Amino acid sequence: QLQLVESGGGLVQPGGPLRLSCTAVIRFSLYYVNWYRQAPGKEREWVAQITSGPTMTYADSVKGRFTISIDNDKKTVDLQMRSLKPEDTARYYCNAVAQFGVGNYWGQGTQVTVSS
Predict the structure, then answer these.
(1) Nearest to 42 by CA among 87, 96, 77, 107
(2) In degrees to the nearest 10, what's the CA dihedral of 93, 8, 90, 99?
(3) What is the pLDDT of residues 20-33, one digit of tens each?
(4) Are strands 110-114 and 10-12 parallel, antiparallel or unpaired?
(5) Residue 83, CB half-sphere, CA atoms under 13 Å: how many?
(6) Contact 24, 2 (CB under 8 A)
(7) Over the stretch 3-19, which tens digit does the pLDDT of each residue have?
(8) What single DSSP character describes residue 107?
(9) What is the three-class DSSP state of 88?
(10) Is residue 59 within 8 Å of residue 47, measured between CB atoms?
């Protein structure tokens, strides 16, 4: 079992930055790590992924504005968000998928609200 904890959410003005973190008790070395987001009444949306390579990929809606990265201890994955828009408002979730097994783990999420 992999326990994930997201942090860093909050209220931010349009155009501003915010950094989210996803921390695990063990290393992410054997996992792909994704960020998803979901606004009330809307479908869950994939945002970004980092692999063990690492390679980073992004949804078109955030490409060029968001950056996903992993810390040296491989226990924390960050999502640096810039040029935030009101449509970025959502609860953001960290997701870890085992490369070789069947594990699929989710954190509890952290709320991001972009508003004046």
Answers:
(1) 87
(2) -20
(3) 999 998 888 889 99
(4) parallel
(5) 7
(6) yes
(7) 999 999 999 999 999 99
(8) -
(9) helix
(10) yes
